[in-house]
Write a structure and sequence with these properties.
Helix content is 32%, strand content 25%. The chain contains two helices and four strands, in the order βααβββ. Helix 1 (7-23) packs antiparallel against helix 2 (30-43). The termini are far apart.
Length: 96
C-alpha cells in the first residue's frame, strides 16, 4: 500500500508540537518534539491496517474517511492502493 501525506496534514502535526514546545519550553525539549512528530507521522502508516475507517466527526471532513489514534485524527481518501492523508487534527482540537 502507498501512503501520501499532503503538506496540510504534516504541517498540522509540526505546528501542534511546535506550539507545545513554545508553551512548555522549560520542560519540553527538542528530543520530545522530534519523538512526538515522528510518532504522529508514523501512525499514519497504520491507516486502513490497524487504524480502522471511521465516520468523520468534523463537518469539513464530510467527504473524507477518518481514522484515529489515541492523540491524532486523520482525514484521508483511499482508492484501493493509495491512502492520501489530506488533514490531521490533534484530539484536543477536535471541534468544528
Amino acid at each position: 500500500m502507498k501512503y501520501v501525506i499532503k503538506p496540510r496534514a504534516a504541517r498540522k502535526i509540526y505546528t501542534f508540537y511546535g506550539n507545545v514546545a513554545k508553551k512548555y519550553r522549560h520542560t519540553y525539549d527538542k528530543a520530545d518534539y522530534k519523538r512526538n512528530v515522528h510518532d504522529a507521522l508514523m501512525s499514519i502508516y497504520n491507516i486502513e491496517g490497524t487504524l480502522l475507517r471511521r465516520e468523520p466527526k468534523l463537518k469539513r471532513w464530510a467527504k473524507y474517511h477518518m481514522a484515529n489514534t489515541d492523540k491524532w485524527y486523520f482525514a484521508y481518501t483511499f482508492d484501493g492502493e493509495t491512502v492520501n492523508v489530506v488533514d490531521a487534527c490533534h484530539a484536543q482540537n477536535m471541534h468544528d
